[in-house]
Amino acid sequence: MSTDKPAKMKPWLRIVLAGSLALNLAVAGLAIGAVIRFRDDGGPKAGPPFGSMMFRELAPETRRSLRQKAGGDHGSFHDRRRAEGAAILTLLRADPFEVEALTGFIEGQASSGRDFQKSVQQAWVARVGAMTVDERAAYADELQQRMRRPHGPKRHRDGS
Q1: CB 102 within 8 Å of CB 91
Q2: What percentage of the chain's residues is helix, strand, coil (to nearest 5)?
Q3: Going by C-beta distance under 8 Å and a sequence separation of 6 or more, which residues neighbour residue 123?
Q4: Rounded mean pLDDT of 98-122?
Q5: How many Cα atoms sit within 13 Å of 23 on the Cβ side?
Q6: pLDDT tens profile 24-65
Q7: Closest Cα partner for 140 from 131, 150, 149?
Q8: DSSP 8-state secondary structure symbol assigned to residue 7
Q9: 19 pLDDT more than 70
Q10: How confident is the model at residue 137 (pLDDT cuts 50, 70, 90)?
Q11: Virtual CA dihedral for 118, 120, 124, 126, nearest 10 degrees?
Q12: Is 92 within 8 Å of 102 (Cβ atoms)?
């Protein structure tokens, strides 16, 4: 019987092996994550929301006009959003807290959103209503194609 002990592993070699194991696990994790994220389960893929498609289909000047109208007294839609955010924060920090004031403010925002959506719908329907039968059929085919490939490049129609 031999009493020789096996040679000990050098510390730098342990570090290299641990680093290699960590790198292999990271690569395996990325590969598994990519498979899960990008797998094709065969089911239908959701297209872009139709409301946003309607808005993008409008002529640029119509979209600009609708955004300005939605901006109200603030000058722009984005300024209005910032002002609304500040108002919400003020209402949340108020002492005493007024539930009715917050509820009224949120209901006003919802009403404005519905008004904006209705304006977009009316403008889009007016645009489609001015098309000939052949133009509408071609337009429907184009929309159908875009609904099938939601990750395609964003395109704006010329509004004619």
Answers
A1: yes
A2: 70, 0, 30
A3: 58, 62, 66
A4: 87
A5: 6
A6: 888 888 888 777 777 665 555 555 566 777 777 888 888 888
A7: 131
A8: P
A9: yes
A10: very high
A11: 60
A12: yes
Token representation of residue 149: 């490939």
Burial of 120 (0-12, 13-18, 19+ CB in 10 A): buried
Helix (DSSP H) and strand (DSSP E) numbers for the chain: 6, 0
The closest of 53, 48, 51, 60 to 113, measured between CA atoms, is 51
| Tokens 């009493």 belong to residue | 3
Copy the structure tokens of residue 122: 């009316």
User: Two tokens at 106?
Assistant: 């949120």
Q: How many CB atoms lie within 10 A of CB 117?
A: 14
pLDDT at 74: 59
Identify the CA nearest to 123 among candidates 76, 79, 61: 61
| Residue 58: how many other CB atoms lie within 10 Å | 20
- The residues near 101 (Cβ < 8 Å, ≥ 6 apart) are 91, 94
The Cα–Cα gap between 138 and 124 comes to: 16
